[in-house]
Write a structure and sequence with these properties.
Layout (H helix, E strand, L loop, with lengths): L6 E7 L2 E8 L6 E5 L10 H9 L3 E5 L18 H14 L5 E6 L1 H12 L4 E7 L11 H8 L4 H6 L3 H6 L4 H9 L14 H4 L12 H14 L2 H8 L1 H7 L12 E6 L3 H5 L2 H6 L2 H5 L3 E6 L5 H4 L1 H16 L2
Parallel strand pairs: 3-4, 3-5, 5-6, 6-7, 7-8
Antiparallel strand pairs: 1-2, 2-4
Protein name: soluble epoxide hydrolase
Pathway: Secondary metabolite biosynthesis; terpenoid biosynthesis
Catalytic activity: an epoxide + H2O = an ethanediol; (24S)-24,25-epoxycucurbitadienol + H2O = (24R)-24,25-dihydroxycucurbitadienol
């Protein structure tokens, strides 16, 4: 089947305007694709084409704070209830009772929480890079303090701090620094900002053309980084909001895909979490695929990721 053109539209839901990119037949089985930091709907361009060619209806929004979607000023507007609420409101607008959900990085976190809060709306979930962890036993302020001031999430907590550091570089360089991550942790040396610690690849990244990087940069130049950084600034609030779901498991069928060289897999104990059975205990209907690659897997290893996603969805659509 011809994948067709990508269609773009905005819709007012949950108090914000959400931009959505859509590809594939309007009557196809819906697959919602949620991007991460610092990305846009565009990070799913290769998955959208593959899904559409197989007859799926691929829907990839710019999450609030990103791209052509609204960018609220108040950090409180980026709580997990707002983020998941946007997704539910979008599904309601589209009159989609239940969908497949695919998420990467922050989008994976939103996807997991959608499964936690509204499992009735999810047929199955595919998460890239970020697994489901139950609510941490300690407040996030204590967790960040243990990592120290150089830890990227610690630095992201203070309003304006990361923005001022990012402003020392052009937007394309900021993005390339994150896209080039291959170091074994995300903690800068004492007295250094994380954006100064990260190094941009001196050569073009093989999975993103220069004109594509410019396209990303133009959108972030317009919308800024404060919205995306506000996701991190809600960590302590989100920890409190999750109290009613303390210890809760994900009951939705799920697949986790990660790159074997993903900095998160290497630095945050994810590999041991998988091998020990802890992940499977928290997500009983779990499948795991660890493949060659780094963090921005759906762009770096598009064909392999497409194959992993499509083969998983086939289990449900061929029934």
């Amino acid at each position: 089947m011809d994948a067709g053109e990508v269609r773009h539209w905005n819709v007012d839901v949950n108090g914000v305007s959400i931009h959505v990119a859509e590809q594939g037949p309007a009557d196809g089985t819906a697959v919602l694709l949620l991007h991460g930091f610092p990305e846009l709907w565009f990070s799913w361009r290769r998955q959208m084409a593959a899904l559409a060619a197989r007859g799926f209806r691929a829907l990839a929004p710019d999450l609030r704070g990103y791209g052509e979607s609204s960018v609220p000023d108040d950090p409180a507007a980026y709580s997990i209830f707002h983020l998941v609420g946007d997704v539910v409101a979008l599904l309601d607008h589209l009159q989609l009772t239940k969908v497949f959900v695919v998420g990467h990085d922050w989008g994976a976190q939103v996807a997991w929480l959608l499964c936690l809060f509204r499992p009735d709306r999810v047929r199955a979930v595919v998460a890239l890079g970020v697994p489901y962890f139950p609510r941490h036993p300690r407040p996030m302020t204590e967790v960040f303090a243990a990592f120290g001031d150089g830890f990227y999430m610690t630095q992201f907590q203070e309003p304006g701090r990361a923005e001022r550091a990012f402003a020392r570089y052009d937007v394309a360089t900021v993005l390339k620094k994150f896209y080039s991550i291959q170091i074994d942790n995300l903690t800068a040396p004492p007295g250094m900002e994380i954006i100064d610690f990260l190094e941009a690849s001196p050569s073009p990244l093989p999975w993103i053309a220069e004109e594509e990087l410019i396209q990303y940069a133009e959108k972030f130049q317009k919308s800024g980084f404060t919205g995306p950084l506000n996701y991190y600034r809600m960590a302590e609030t989100n920890w409190r909001l999750l109290a009613p779901w303390n210890g809760a498991k994900i009951t939705v069928p799920a697949k986790f895909i990660a790159g074997d060289k993903d900095i998160g897999v290497q630095s945050f104990g994810i590999e041991q979490y998988i091998k020990s059975g802890g992940f499977k205990s928290n997500v009983p209907e779990l499948e795991v695929a660890i493949i060659d690659g780094h963090h921005f897997l759906q762009q770096e290893q598009a064909e392999r990721v497409n194959s992993e996603i499509l083969s998983y969805l086939d289990k449900f659509t061929s029934e």
